[in-house]
Write a structure and sequence with these properties.
Layout: E1 2-7, H1 33-36, E2 39-45, E3 48-54, E4 64-65, E5 94-95, E6 100-107, E7 111-116, E8 133-140, E9 157-166, E10 171-179, E11 185-191, E12 197-204, E13 209-214, H2 219-230, E14 244-245, H3 253-265, E15 272-275, H4 295-307, E16 311-317, E17 320-321, H5 331-339, E18 353-355, E19 358-361, H6 370-383, E20 391-394, H7 511-514, H8 518-533, E21 541-543, E22 555-557, H9 565-580, E23 586-587, E24 589-590, H10 599-609, E25 616-617, H11 632-647, H12 649-662, E26 667-668, H13 670-673, E27 687-689, E28 693-696, E29 705-709, E30 718-720, E31 734-738, E32 745-749, E33 752-757, H14 764-769, E34 772-777, E35 784-790, E36 802-809, E37 812-819, E38 826-833, E39 843-845, E40 848-849, E41 853-856, E42 861-864, E43 869-870, E44 875-879
Parallel strand pairs: 14-15, 14-25, 15-16, 16-20, 20-21, 21-22, 22-23, 24-25, 34-38
Antiparallel strand pairs: 1-13, 2-3, 3-4, 5-6, 6-12, 7-9, 8-11, 9-10, 10-13, 11-12, 17-19, 18-19, 26-27, 27-28, 28-32, 29-31, 30-32, 33-34, 35-36, 36-37, 37-44, 38-42, 38-43, 39-40, 39-44, 41-42
Helix pairs in contact: 6-8, 10-11
């Protein structure tokens, strides 16, 4: 259930996001909601203020409260912006053309999650400060920067989830708050001195105060309600869950092919091979280098992948290079100029930034012909021999290496990229040793050798506010590049390393207003283009810059991370954030992108990423190679982890079907499932896959054990995934688990029923063709439940599908199909954990006694084998 509050200017001159960018559903036309909704709106007219309460808890602190009487009378000292300007003193409501401010009270110690994209030093739970301290200044301004901590980066997501715990009732409720706007902004979480409350303050450079409130009351319901508003995630092809390999630095098509061969020789499953900008001719989008990547050889290579049921994905950068002389031929630029689809300067000339290929232009997604231009460019590339299965969108904040239209008036033939921008060129290699390097222990290759030796680290302003219209390009005297309040953009000037804020789109829209949605609009255009190029097939996209509703079109990787242990930990926080943002298919560059990794770090990271949605190993061309076959221990750990991942494919696939159908998060913070356990509210070194699997990775070097908490406060039984033994877990505190190199702890929750692939194979297609098995972990009362969504794995819904419902009670497991997709694979094995504490005397399958079963009293495990069950029919397995 949601409530919408919009404070806007009566002239409606402020910029608002257009429906053809993000189409939000209309409010429900049901008058009874004003009387029955759990969310209630209240306001005071003079001075204007509003607050939101729960009808079910009228005496509780409001969920959102802008009243002066609710806010501290003594604010913290002024927070200085990047240009030394400050906001208005205190916490007033401000609505000016280029500065909006709104403040709400929060409970002291509030549990706030979201407000990103960010790598937060405080963890998944945001810091709200203590006694006069500013905990968080979250700036929303899309920025190309290699994963700094506590700064704005690639995406902008003004949504937070607050989780409130009542110490008296020991019960929690969650709600969500979403600001629907694209303007650059600061969002502050702070606690004034000696204050009974904390506050959240919004400082916006434009737009309106357009808020949506979600009632929850569970964390999962908040996330689903947000998805109902902005749109549920796109449907993914099944092959997208396979392991994927990339590198900026595969120098030619043979080098790329060699990786595929070596992965198969090492028997490490590889589903998708990627190429970075090495593929391009003159670093130009939609091209192949005629020497290193000849089109016919690229076509032959991709044909080889296709024949082996593997896939290929190339990169597409945001900027389009211009022609450098009269003899230059580059159709995407010529065609785009003909169709008038590129961003302009205020005087109507083309806006010329500078990126990898030199001076460049940028598609204007608001122009009439841009979709057809983009589809045509992608189709021509596909037909030229780069017959890709998906697309990788990069640099789409969008990134530009100079401030302003630096190519305007320049010698266009002399556009070159400074060496320092291009890693891997002579004189610009990554020469730093990996994080824990020790010359007396490490092998001569510079990569760690694990022989039982622990190696890591054994080396030695109010008066600045003035009224100015944001109708922007049409008004005189407006400086679009320096708004009167400077948000805390870590690059300082808003136009640094991106398109300038005075660049002009079609219909006189200016970049200042729409900067944060550039990536979203490219994602939508690319998704629609792929539907045109691959009719009926689900588009597969991974993109860097994101905005609310990006998940309808794309997945996301967490950007240019670093080969350090801290960044492996931060990847969990990043994945949890994007579950809230309705972009659930997300992952990090495994083993790290920047810098040099080592064997131990890559070993642990390949295991962790196998239990996260998007699974790709990728690094920068100037660093050491880190393909998993390069170390025996990493190869072994990868094979084991990928085998578990592929066996779990029906579970992964079902979780993402539920995300697409209902907005349910596939990866969950522990408190999502156990909301009344305060000891879990800050946990972000562990996570759940769905409701049933608990992952506890090793995130530090030089250890052979790991500490982790087991949710449920002793009321839930957890079993080791590998041995299926019950864990003797401490209640509400950490338990120490064995974790030798090559092992990641995974535990299964009681009450779960999980359909598995019995025989994980080298590719997803081969795995899906094999038989199923069923794993049931019964609770003490015999209960277990699970579903499995099955379809062809590639067709755009609506498409035939069948859902299997698996239920257990004491002495029985039943399976019921419902749907119109014909399942050809058979069920071969049913394993029931906690089945009985004494040896069964009889087992029947669909009423017929069978002798093909085993019982292990050590783990109370009943295994029924030699089954050949048709899953298009209901079945019952019983024992006594």
């Amino acid at each position: 259930m949601r409530l919408h509050v919009n404070i806007f200017d009566t002239d409606k001159a402020q910029f608002t996001i257009l429906p053809d960018v993000i189409a939000l559903p209309d409010a429900e036309d049901d008058p009874s909601l004003k009387r029955n909704s759990d969310l209630e709106f209240h306001y005071e007219s003079s001075p204007f203020a509003f607050w939101i309460t729960r009808r079910s808890e009228p005496d509780a602190q409001p969920l959102f409260d802008t009243r002066t009487s609710s806010l501290p009378s003594t604010p913290i000292p002024p927070i200085i912006a990047s240009d030394n300007s400050t906001a208005l003193d205190g916490f007033p409501l401000v609505f000016e053309d280029q500065y909006l401010q709104l403040t709400s009270a929060l409970p002291l110690g509030a549990n706030i999650y979201g407000l990103g994209e960010v790598l937060s030093s405080s963890g998944f739970r945001r810091d709200i400060g203590t006694d006069g301290g500013v905990g968080t200044i979250q700036t929303l301004w899309a920025r190309d920067s290699p994963d700094p901590i506590n700064q704005n980066v690639y995406g902008s997501h003004p949504i937070y989830l607050e989780h409130r715990y009542n110490q008296t009732t020991r019960h929690s409720q969650s709600h969500g708050v979403f600001h629907f706007g694209a303007a650059g902004s600061d969002i502050l979480l702070l606690t004034p001195p000696s204050s009974p409350v904390s506050v959240i303050e919004y400082r916006l450079l434009g737009g309106t105060l357009d808020f949506y409130f979600f009632s929850g009351p569970s964390p999962q319901k908040v996330i689903e309600q947000y998805g109902d508003l902005i749109g549920h995630p796109t449907w993914l092809p099944a092959w997208g869950f396979g392991f994927q390999l990339s590198r900026w630095g595969y120098s030619d098509v043979n080098d790329t092919r060699d990786q595929v061969v070596k992965m198969r020789e090492a028997n490490i499953p590889l589903e998708v091979m990627w190429n970075d900008i090495d593929l391009y001719h003159a670093i130009r989008d939609f091209t192949t280098d005629p020497v290193s990547f000849p089109a016919e050889e690229v076509r032959a290579f991709i044909d080889e992948l296709t024949a082996n049921q593997q896939h290929y994905i190339p990169i597409v950068d945001a900027a389009i290079p211009i022609l450098v002389n009269d003899s230059d031929v580059y159709d995407p630029y010529s065609r785009g100029t003909e169709l008038d689809v590129f961003l302009k300067n205020p005087d109507g000339s083309q806006y010329l930034g500078q990126v990898w290929p030199g001076y460049t232009v940028f598609p204007d997604w608001f122009a009439n012909n841009t979709q057809s231009f983009w589809t045509e460019a992608l189709r021509n590339w596909f037909q030229s021999g780069v017959n890709y299965s998906g697309i990788w969108l990069d640099m789409n904040e969008p990134s530009s290496f100079c401030i302003g239209s630096c190519g305007t008036g320049a010698n266009l033939t002399a556009a070159t990229i400074p060496t320092q921008f291009f890693p891997g060129t002579p004189g610009n290699l990554v020469t730093d040793y990996p994080e824990g390097y020790n010359a007396t222990i490490w092998g001569p290759s510079g990569n760690i050798t694990i022989n039982g030796t622990l190696t890591f680290g054994n080396n030695s302003a109010a008066n600045a506010l003035s009224k100015r219209g944001l109708g922007a390009a049409a008004e005189s005297g407006v400086n679009l590049n320096t708004p009167p309040y400077a948000i805390h953009n870590a690059d300082g000037i808003l136009s640094t390393h991106t398109v300038s804020t005075n660049a002009t789109h079609a219909n006189r829209v200016v970049e200042l207003d729409v900067h944060n949605v550039w990536g979203l609009m490219e994602e939508k255009a690319t998704h629609l283009a792929l539907l045109d190029i691959h009719p009926g097939k689900r588009p597969f996209l991974i993109s860097r810059s994101t905005f609310p509703s990006s998940g309808k079109w794309t997945g996301h990787w967490l950007g240019d991370n670093i080969s350090k242990w801290q960044y492996m930990y931060l990847s969990i926080q990043g994945v949890l954030q994007f579950q809230l943002y309705q972009i659930p298919f997300v992952g990090a560059d495994t083993c790290g992108f920047q810098g040099n990794t080592d064997e131990e770090l890559c070993n642990r990271w390949m295991q962790l990423s196998a239990f996260l949605p998007f699974y790709r190993n990728h690094n920068v061309r100037s660093a050491l190679s880190q393909e998993p076959y390069r170390w025996d221990s990493v190869a072994n750990a990868s094979r084991t982890a990928i085998s578990v991942r592929y066996s779990l494919l029906p579970y992964w696939y079902t979780l993402f079907a539920n995300a697409s159908l209902h907005g349910s998060p596939p990866i969950r913070a522990l408190f999502f499932e156990f909301p009344d356990e305060p000891e879990l509210f800050a946990v972000d070194r562990q996570y759940l896959i769905g409701r049933d699997l608990l992952v506890t990775p090793v995130l530090t070097p030089n250890v052979s054990s790991v500490d982790g908490i087991f949710p449920g406060q002793g009321r839930v039984v957890w079993r080791d995934w590998y041995t299926q033994e019950v864990v003797n877990a401490s209640i509400s505190t950490n338990t120490t688990l064995g974790a030798p190199l090559g092992h990641i702890n995974v535990h299964i929750r009681d009450g779960s029923a999980i359909l598995l692939h019995e025989e994980p194979a080298y590719t997803i297609a081969q795995t899906r063709q094999g038989p199923y098995s069923l794993l049931v972990a019964q609770a003490a009362d015999g209960y277990a439940f699970g579903t499995a969504y099955i379809d062809d794995g590639e067709t755009v819904p609506p498409t035939p599908n069948t859902t299997l419902t698996m239920k257990a009670r004491k002495g029985a497991v039943t399976i019921y199909p419902n749907g119109d997709y014909w399942i050809t694979q058979r069920l071969h094995i049913v394993t029931v954990l906690g089945a009985a504490q004494t040896l069964p005397t009889e087992v029947t399958v669909d009423g017929v006694q069978t002798a093909a079963w085993q019982y292990d009293s050590h783990v109370y495990r009943l295994v029924i084998k030699a089954l050949n069950l048709d899953l298009n029919k209901p079945h019952s397995v019983e024992w006594k």
